[in-house]
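#struct-pred

JT: dropping the chains for the assembly here, can someone run the whole complex?
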Amino acid sequence: DAGVIQSPRHEVTEMGQEVTLRCKPISGHNSLFWYRQTMMRGLELLIYFNNNVPIDDSGMPEDRFSAKMPNASFSTLKIQPSEPRDSAVYFCASRGRPSSYEQYFGPGTRLTVT
Amino acid sequence: SQQGEEDPQALSIQEGENATMNCSYKTSINNLQWYRQNSGRGLVHLILIRSNEREKHSGRLRVTLDTSKKSSSLLITASRAADTASYFCASFNFGNEKLTFGTGTRLTIIP
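RK: done, full complex below.
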C-alpha cells in the first residue's frame, strides 16, 4: 500500500497567488482530514470528509480556504488569495472504517508564502 | 484553545534510559492515541487506549490513562537513537469524531 500521497511536497508562492494542495488517501479509506501545523498553533484540524462529504469545516480559518473531495481517491485544499500567515505544513490524513480510530498521515506539504 | 498540553515540551536522555511523557486533555473522550513525528515527516500512529482501559502495552511502549484527571502518559523503555522524534497525544471525542492533538514533546536520545 502506497500510503497517503500529497503533492506538492514543497510550495513557495507570492502573496496573493492561488495555492492548491492535493491529497490521495489510502484506497478503501472513507474519511479524509486536512490539518495545518505551525510552531505557534501546533496541529490544527481544518476540515474532514466522510464518504466524500464535508462533515466539519469549522477549523477552516477564512473564506480564502476551500476544500473539495470530488471522489474517494482525491481531495484538494485551495487557498485564494494566499497570505504570508498561511505559511505552514499542511497534512492530509485518512482513516478506514469509522470504528478504526487511527489516522494515517501523508508526508505533508510545506507551504511558504512570501 | 481545545488543544491538550504535553509535558515536558522537550526531553533529552541517554540511549538505554526510559522516557516518560505526559499529556492532559480537556474534554470527555472515547479513546486517546499517541503519535510519533520524525523531523520533516507526517505523524505515525503508535498506540490507542480506550476510555475504559487504564494501561496498555505495545512492545517497548506503555500507555496509561486516568480519565478522572484527564491525563495520560507514554513510557518508552530502553530508548534507542531511532526513538528521537516528537510525540503527540490525541484525544478522540466520539461526539464530533475529531482528534484533538496535544502540543507535543520533542524527545532526543543521546547515543
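JT: nice. Chain A touches chain B through 21 residues (CB under 8 Å). Chain A has a mean pLDDT of 94.
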